[in-house]
Amino acid sequence: MMFTTKMKYLTAVVLDKDVEAVTKELLADGVLHFVNIAEVSSGLKNKVQSVTPQISLTRIAELKKRIESFLNMIGILPEKEKALDITQLTPVDLEQSEKELDKLSESVQGIRDRQKNIQQEILKLEDIKRQIELFGDIRSSLKERSHFSFLNVQTGIIPENRFEDFNTEFKTLPSVVLNFHTESEQSSILLITMKRDDNRVNALLLKYGWVDAEIDQEMDGIKENVVSDLDNKLKIYNKEQQDLHDESFSVIKEKGDTLQRLWANLRMNELYYKIQSYFSKTSRTVIFSGWVPAGKADSLEKGIDKATKGLCYMEWSNPEKLEREEKTKVKVPVQLKNPKFLAPFQMLVKNYAIPEYGTIDPTPFVAVAYLIMFGLMFGDAGHGLVLLCIGFLGMFFDKKASGNIFNLFKLISYCGVSAICAGVLFGSYFGMEWFPPLWFDYHAVVLGHVPGDSIIHDIYGILQITLYFGIGVIFAGLILNWINLVRQKRWLRLFLDKTGLLGAWVYGGGIYIGYYFMTQNGKLPDDTTLLLLAFIPMLLFLLKPVLSFFTKKTDNHHARFTIFTLIDFFMEWIVELLEVFGGYLANTLSFMRVAGLGIAHTSLMVAFFKIADMTNSPIFAPMVLIFGNILVIALEGLSAGIQSLRLNYYEFFSKYFSGTGEAYTPVSLSTSQD
Amino acid sequence: MAGPLEKYAFIAAKLRTKLSKILSADFLARLISSHSLVEAIQLLRDTDFSQVDVIYEKTGDLKMGELELFKQEIKLFEEVIRYVSGDVADFCRALLMRYEIDNLKNILRLWFDRVVRKREIEEASSYIYREKIIRDLHVEQLLNAENIENIPEILSDSPYGLLILENSEQIKLKNSLFSLEIALDKYYYKQLLLQVSMLSTRDAEIANRLIGVEIDMHNINWIVRFKTLYDLSLEDTLSYIIPFGHSLNQQMLGAAFQSEGTADIISDFIKKKYANLSPLIKIQGSETHSRLVLVERLLEEIMRYEVKRVLMGNPFTIGIILAYFVLKKWEIKKVMTILNAKLYGIEAERIRDSL
C-alpha cells in the first residue's frame, strides 16, 4: 500500500503445439502485462519472428460494434463480466457472423420500409384533415372545389347492397367515405379522396355505379363526422405503425441471446488474438514475456506448467536483475494496490499520472490531505450531511455505472464525513450554532464576535492555521520525496536538490526567518543564524551543477570543462535559487486559499441569514434559507473539491511525485475495451 | 451599454460546450462505413441527432427526421436569441431569416410544381415546415394558391409579398422561379448586412468577413450553374450576383464568367487574398465544371479557416455565434448526406468523395 506493487518479469518458452492452451490459460489468469520480448531482450531481436494473429482484430472490433449497435436498439448492453467464460471460447467465423448481422439488418430495414409506407398514408390522411379543418364548412367547399387543391370532395349515390364492398375498397386508399342515409335501396355518400388517386377512384366509382347527386340538406355537422372518420383511420394506421415498431424490436430481441453470445465469443477471440500478437516464435517454439505482480507469479507459473504439462521453460527476473543484464533502464509497469475504500483517491492519483515504479504510492497521503483540506474549506456539519446523503444515494442508484462514477459518489460521501467532522469542530450546522464548537466558532471569527476564551480571535488566525497546515503538507511531501530518493539511491538529488535535504534546509530557514521577522517587529535574526539558515545552504546549491558535471549526471555526458562551464554553473545556481525562493513561497501562500474558501463559505451563509431577516416574512425567510443552503452546498462544495484537488496536484505532488510510470494493464477477460 | 464580456460571456461558454459535441471526423467515418441505414441511424442515438433515431424508429421515414433537424436548428437559433439582447439579438434574428426564406422557397417550388408544372405534390407537401419562424407564411394558402397573382396578397403581411409582386412578371415570362429566388437571397443578405452595420466595430468586422465568404460561396455556386446549365448573358449573370462578397467582387466574377478558364481566374483571386493558404490552393482537374467544383471546395476550406481563426481568437465576439452556426449547419448537412446515401445504398467510397 505504501509503495507500488513489486513486479516480476517472466520470460517463457512453450512448444508450438501448446500455444492454444497457454493462450487460454494466460487469458483466464489475466495477470500478465505483456511486453514484446524484443523490446526488453535486445539479444533476441533478430532470432525470433513475431506472430501474426490468424484473423483481423479490426474486423472483430467492427463486428462487435455492430452487435452493440443492435443490442442498443433493444436497450441492452453486453454484460461482459457475466458473459465472458473462457470455457465457452470457440473459433469465430467472421464471414458467417457478418452474414448473420447483414440478415438481421435487412429484416429490420424491411420493417422500416413497411413503416415508411404506412407513414405515407398517415401523412396523406393528416393532409386531408389539415385541409378540411382549414377550409371551414364542407358544404360551401363543395361549391368551390378548387379550394381543395389536393382533394376531391364529391357526393353521390350507389346501390345500397354494394356499399360494404365500396367501403372496403376505398379503405385501401387515403379517403373518407360517409354514408348519410339509405332510401329506395340507394345509399347517399360523401366521398373525399386525393386528386392524385383520381384514376383509381374513377375506376372504382364506375365499378360501383356511382351517380353524382346533391345531398345538401343532410350535410349539417358533416365536418365533425369527416374529421372523426379520419381520426379513426389515423388511429388504425398509428396502431399498425406501433405494431411494426414492436415487430422490429421483437426481431432483434429474438436474436438477443445469440447476439450476446456472439459478442462474448468475439470479445474473447479478440483478447485471445491480442495475447498472441505479443508472441514471438522460432521454428518449433513460442516465446512470450511480461510483468506480473510478485504475489501472483506462483499461480501463473503453475497455470502455464499445467497447460503445457510441464513442457515449458520459464525464467523469472526482478527489475534490478533485468536492468543489470540489459545494461539499460527498464520500464516496469506500475500497479497501485490499495484497500477498496481508498479507490476514489486512487482514481484522483491515476487521473494525474502514474507514479514511477518502486516509489511511494501517493493514494493514502492524498486521502488524508484531501479530506483535511476539504473539511477546512467546507466546515459545516449540516452541509456535510447533505453531501453524505448525495454520495450514498448516488452509490445506491448508480451501482451499474462505470467505476469512476461510483468512485465519484464515494468521494462525495467521504467529503461529507470530512465536512461533518469540521462542522462539529467549528460548531456550524447549516450555518447555525446548534452545539458549541469543539475547536473554535468559525462564524463568530468571520463576523468579529469572538468570545474571549476562543483559541482564534480573527481571520488572521484562520489564515495562520492554513499556512501552518500548508507548511506541514509541504514538509510531508519533502519527506516522502527523500524516502523515494533513498530507495532509488539518488544521493545527489537527496542532498542537493531543491526538494532534497538542502531544499528543506532553506525552506525551514526561510520559515524561521519569516516568523522571527513578523514576531519581532520587523527585525531579522542575528548574523550567525542568517549565515546558518540562509547563506550556507544558498552557497551549497552551487555544488549541485558542479557535482552533476563531474559525476557525468548532466544531460550532456561528453561535455568538456571550459570557461563557459563555469558560467553554466553560475547560471544554474542562480536559477535554482530563484526557483527555491519563488517556488516555496508560492507553494506556501497557495494554502491561504483554504482559509479564503472557508471564510467565503461562512460569509455566504451569513449573507443569506441577513437576507432572510430582511424579508421579515415567515414564508419567504425559510425559502431564502433553503435556497441559500442549496446554493452554498453546490457552489462551495464544487469549489472546495476542486481547490483540494488543485492543492494536492500542484503543491503536494510537485514535491515528491514523479508521474512517469506506465500503468499495469494485463490482458484479461475484464480488460476494458479499447 | 453592455461590454463584450457581459454580452458574450454566457453565450460563448454555452456555445463552446455545444461545439465540443459536434461530431468528429472519426465518428462521421464510422457513420459512412456502417453497413446499413438502420445501423447508421443507430449510431446517432447518443448524439445531438438522437431525434432522427427516435423518429426513424417510429416511422421508418428519413425525411421526417430531416424535418425534425430543421425544427431543431430553428429552436437553436431561438435559444441563442433568448440569451443575447439588443443588436446581437437583432443580428441573430436576421440570421434566422435564412431558414424562413429557405422554407418559403420550398413552398413556392411546390406551388410552382403543382400549378405550373402540373405535378403531384401531396407527398412532398407533408415535409414542409409549417410552424411560424419569424412571420406567418400561410403555408396552406400558398400551396393552394391558384395563380401567381394570389401569392403577394397571401404574403401581404410580410416583405416577401412585395418581392413576389415585383418578380411575378419575370416568373411568368421565364416560366421559372429563378429570379424570385435570387431576389429573396439578395433581400436576406441586405437585411443581414444592415444588422451587421448596427454591431460594434469589432463584431461588424468579423461578421462581414464570415458573411462575405458565405456570399462568395453562394456566388460561385451560381456561376458554376450559369456556366454549365443556363444560357445567360453577362448582364443577366451580373444582375444575379450578390454584392458584398469577401474575396470575389462583381468585376472578378464577371471576368471569371466570361473567361474559358473560369476556375483558374477565381483561384488566382483567392490565392492573392489567402496567400498563407497557398499549399491548399491547387486547383487541378481537366474539365471546367470539375475545376469549378474544386473552387467551391476551396471556398469551403477558406470558410473553415475563417471559422477556426474566429474560434482561436477573442471568445467574446459575435464570431462564436457565427462560427457555431456555420459548423452546425455543416454537421447537419454531412450527416444527412451520409444517411440519404445509406438509404440509396451508395458505397462508402463514393460518400466519402461527395463530402
DSSP helical segment count of chain A? 25
Q: Give the distance, in angstroms, between the N- and C-terminal Cα atoms of chain B.
A: 44 Å
Largest sheet of chain A, if any? 6 strands, antiparallel
Would you tell me the structural class of the helices and strands of chain B?
mainly alpha
Q: SSE order of chain B in H/E notation? A: HHHHHHHHHHHHHHHHHH
Class based on secondary structure composition and strand pairing of chain A: alpha+beta
Oligomer: heterodimer
Write down the Rg of chain A: 40 Å
- Low-pLDDT regions of chain A: none
As a percent range, the share of strand residues of chain B is under 5%
Q: How would you state the average pLDDT of chain A, rounded?
A: 87
Question: Summary?
Answer:
The complex is a heterodimer of chains A (674) and B (355). Chain A has 674 residues and is an alpha+beta fold.
Structure report:
The complex is a heterodimer of chains A (674) and B (355). In chain A, strands 1, 2, 3, 8, 9 and 10 form a six-stranded antiparallel beta sheet that branches. Chain A has helices at residues 19-29, 37-40, 57-73, 80-83, 94-134, 138-143, 163-170, 198-207, 222-254, 256-276, 297-307, 319-326, 343-352, 363-377, 381-397, 403-426, 442-447, 459-488, 491-496, 501-519, 527-540, 543-550, 563-590, 592-615, 620-656, and strands spanning 7-15, 33-35, 49-50, 151-159, 175-183, 186-194, 211-212, 280-281, 285-293, 312-317, 333-334, 662-663. The mean pLDDT of chain A is 87. Chain A is flat. In chain A, helix 5 runs antiparallel to helix 9 and helix 14 (363-377) packs parallel to helix 24 (592-615). The longest helix of chain A has 41 residues, at 94-134. In chain A, a hairpin with a 3-residue loop joins strand 8 (280-281) and strand 9 (285-293). Chain A is built from 25 helices and twelve strands. Chain A has 674 residues and is an alpha+beta fold. Chain B has 355 residues and is mostly helical. In chain B, 72% of the residues lie in helices and 0% in strands. Chain B has helices spanning 4-20, 25-32, 37-43, 50-59, 62-83, 86-115, 122-125, 139-144, 150-154, 159-174, 178-196, 201-228, 234-240, 250-258, 262-273, 288-312, 319-343, 348-354. In chain B, helix 14 (250-258) runs antiparallel to helix 15. The longest helix of chain B is centred in the first third of the chain and has 30 residues, at 86-115.
